Fold this protein.
Amino acid sequence: MTDAEYVNIWMRPERPARGPKPAYSRAQITEAAVRIADAEGLEAATMRRIAAEIGAGAMSLYRYVPSRDNLIELMADRLMGEIDVTDMPSGDWRADLTRYADGLRAMWLRHPWIATVQRSLPSFGPNQLLLIERLMGVLDAFVSIDENLGFVAMLNGYVEGTVREEVSSAEELRRSGLSEPEWMARSHPYVDQLVKSGKYPIFTKIVTEARRPHLSREDQFRHGLKHVLDYIATALPPTAGSAMPASREGREGQDGPAQGS
Amino acid sequence: MTDAEYVNIWMRPERPARGPKPAYSRAQITEAAVRIADAEGLEAATMRRIAAEIGAGAMSLYRYVPSRDNLIELMADRLMGEIDVTDMPSGDWRADLTRYADGLRAMWLRHPWIATVQRSLPSFGPNQLLLIERLMGVLDAFVSIDENLGFVAMLNGYVEGTVREEVSSAEELRRSGLSEPEWMARSHPYVDQLVKSGKYPIFTKIVTEARRPHLSREDQFRHGLKHVLDYIATALPPTAGSAMPASREGREGQDGPAQGS
DNA sequence: CTCCACTGGGTACGTTGTACGCGGTTGTGG
DNA sequence: CCACAACCGCGTACAACGTACCCAGTGGAG
């Protein structure tokens, strides 16, 4: 009815014109929901639980939010606002994109449950819109809007792909209620059986030899990010301001001079 | 109790020694669940719905599967089995990895709900294990196990990141019950308002100028995949057999550098 | 002042996953 | 060959979920 009148949650006004003053707010509800999801997972952020968190009755939330799905949209957009993109573009595109990538990764690590929220059709909340403006503004002067979209998709894809793995591990551990050593100990019989069967030589190799899972995630992330930025650099005109010169493909080896500041 | 005895679903035997013959099977249940999830989304695959699909009572499923979460693990592993990795490694690593990437992408497109199943801690079902063996066997002879893990993570990350976008769009559309033009028409007032506000120049540019969303997903995928494979190529020794020259001879078998067990 | 669009929230309903226990079936030890 | 215990399918039941509906109050507009 009146619900279907609105195209989406962003077009629905939070406060009507008349009537008594609301005791809560969308922002407050969203904040509480994010807090619960951070601590106990998204599935713990039930309407009743959120209401209890702010001292309201369960059904009161529906005065502010049409449905739980819409609330999750609000939560997701709130997270977008955590990524610091002020003063972008700064003139140094590489520094800007690095700062964005770091911010996106850090946000995911603070809110692992974001992995379970499918991005779906673009929701275009206010924070996400601002993010788009600032982020795509970085390369807007140098490339076409289509190329820009491609680069941003690649960058987002890289960051999210990388961080999704560690985030979902952490979530699974939290859900199981076990610590990582406990989990390892628990699955040891299974892993052992697989190894002893002799049917999985590469799996065995991973278990017995690989050191990668123990390497710093941070290092892996920076290493891969460098490649993504290098790739972008090859498609940018030389007029693009950056702390590093654009290099041709195939370049590898030790990391060059890191862009300072 | 007896549930907690087992490390995971893969160690729990499907059939006990004694008693009457089961009327159904894990495979049959998993199949039905996948069929429902494909057609109506994962959330439609409830225990009752799955049971009805195979003509069983709801609680009968619990004779075969300890919980719905475990059933979803079975479903996910069944999907891994759809990816054709027979005859890998073939000697042409580039062809092998391309075939794998195509297969992975096609599988995602057939089963969009996989995007909502977090990979979590590696579950190591039989199909996934076989996939690991075949896929990582492709580069095993040329690089260390750590490098191999890195490449596979990158390849998986690229494919999943690319396909996740289109898949989640399709899922969202299906959930909303609208066709894509219908959805576009519906959100037009909101987009229009954003454009008219003048506050979002880049968003406006995307809406009015960008052609990328209309380009072939297939082309985009192949283009990006080429870059991923090119990057892998730069880190491989020249002895690695690929399609570049027609060196039928240069193939090395499973014998890599030192490894023994 | 009166009015009524609004407020917070209690109650209730349909749906979910699943614990429990039932009567029937069947491989196996005596 | 038979009794028994282990298994079967599954009906009933329950807690927790999202949320529809309804209510008694409240406060700005006329």
About this structure: The radius of gyration of chain B is 23 Å. Residues 16-24, 51, 56-60, 63 of chain B lie near DNA strand D (CB under 10 Å from a C1'). Residues 145-176 of chain B form the longest helix (32 residues).
